[in-house]
Amino acid sequence: MYGLIAIFDETTEQLIKTIWKELYERSISAYAYEVEDRIPHITLASYNNLNISDFIEQINEIYENQPAIDIKFNSIGSFLNSGALFYSPTMTKDLFEFHANHHKKFEQFNDDPNSLYIPDHWIPHCTIANRLSLEKLTEAFHYCTKRISTIQGKIVGVALIDVSDKSKAPIIYSKELIK
């Protein structure tokens, strides 16, 4: 199984990693450390099977002239009955089109019509904690709402990750966007 993720500028990535570390140090969540190579991201698409060389070739072609996208996280959310906590970006026209264009141009690779990442199902988010008890979810929510007010950054690249092994998520290939 594979995912295509949007990756952030260094400042945004480091801020989220710091929050992950603080949640871990407070014994609230070990989310960041459950998977080797985990980086802050927004998942754009998922695939069960993939012709990797064809997919990478298309990434290079499609994202060659794609400018970086401004992103602003100013809300926190949770999926029902998941124990997940995430920062939710403001859905701008640029973010919406970035996601929609990906799915339009990579349609031949879509092998899961029920994916949570396809248009009309996608809830863009950057996970902060996952699989928490109600008590820990409440604790994480309170901590994160007081920890920062808004995160402003950029999506500066896309990366193809392999999530076949639940203990690691290595980047197979990444492509920088135009800064």
From TrEMBL:
UniProt protein name: 2'-5' RNA ligase family protein
Organism: Neobacillus kokaensis
Short name of one Pfam family: 2_5_RNA_ligase2
InterPro entries associated with the record: Cyclic_Pdiesterase
Signal sequence interval, chain numbering: none
